[in-house]
Amino acid sequence: MSRTPPDRGADAHFRALESLYASAPINRLFESSLTLATAGEARIDFLVSPSSFHAAGAAHGTLYFKMLDDAAFYAANSLVSDRFLLTTAFNLHFTKPMREGPAVAEGRWVSGKRRVFVAEARIVDSSGEECARGTGTFLRSHIALAGLEGYRAP
């Protein structure tokens, strides 16, 4: 695990990661926001809209994967302050169709502190029911977080 530089602190790293999430062009397609409150945990509040539905009137798997991967990724990257992590594998399980309305993806770091990290995530709908869960493997890349334009504390 990389140590956060003393002049930045964990809170500044979390805010910079939240800024990075908001700056990603893909997130213009999904109404969502990332919150990092604790190292190893991430929360994405998002809205399931009909524009993400498949032909049978529920959310397409694309939305499940994106939110689960992002929540797990940011839970893991909250522990690494110098490098961007890359998803190398992700396994997901659908448990309930997501309908229109608010939902939450909750990510949690599971293991790994050097090069490879494992994190899991789940999606809960507005009624509190789990809709999906997944586990991802993330690899420390050569991409410096500080070199990414979106990585900055507000």
Automatic annotation (TrEMBL):
Domain spans labelled Thioesterase: 57-132
Family annotation (Pfam families): 4HBT
UniProt KW keywords: Hydrolase
Gene3D superfamilies xrefs: Hotdog Thioesterase
SUPFAM superfamilies attached to this UniProt entry: Thioesterase/thiol ester dehydrase-isomerase (SSF54637)
Full protein name: Thioesterase domain-containing protein
Organism: Sphingomonas swuensis
